[in-house]
Design brief:
Oligomer: single chain
Number of helices: 1
Strand content: 25-35%
Strand order of the largest sheet: 3-8-9-10
Order of helices and strands: EEEHEEEEEEE
Radius of gyration: 14 Å
Shape: globular
Length: about 130
């Protein structure tokens, strides 16, 4: 069991979340600028593009699941429904040089956007296409 950012216990549904070198650099920059951050795959997203926000501003809903954590201790949360089937998948975080207009995600202000790469855990064959 993990801990909810605001005290209650949550179900930890995933192993460690890998992050590419560029993603780690952007995460480190964001942490230096804003303090601890969290990545959240919100219910209104495409399923591959998490929102990055300050940990202190994150208020998960009851059905949200702590899907994993990066080496920088940045948690990846998923809205209810996204985490189904993720037990047999490897998730990694990458960064793209294409910010979305109007995005509230912290990395967008730096000209980047995080994207999830999702692969089968058994044979590491890409299972779901990356965010475009």
């Amino acid at each position: 069991m993990g801990r909810h950012p605001h005290g209650r216990k949550v179900d930890h549904r995933h192993r460690a979340v890998e992050a590419g070198d560029d993603a780690l650099r952007v995460l480190r920059l964001l942490i230096e600028m804003h303090g601890p951050v969290v990545l959240y795959l919100a219910p209104d997203t495409d399923g591959y593009t998490p929102v990055c926000m300050r940990l202190r501003d994150f208020r998960p809903d009851a059905g949200d699941v702590l899907a994993g954590q990066t080496a920088w201790h940045t948690q990846l949360w998923m809205a209810e429904g996204f985490h189904v089937g993720f037990d047999d998948l490897d998730v990694s975080i990458e960064v793209r040089n294409r910010p979305q207009r109007g995005s509230v995600s912290l990395e967008a202000s730096c000209g980047f956007r995080f994207a999830l790469r999702i692969e089968k855990a058994d044979d590491a064959v890409e299972f779901v296409e990356e965010a475009s």
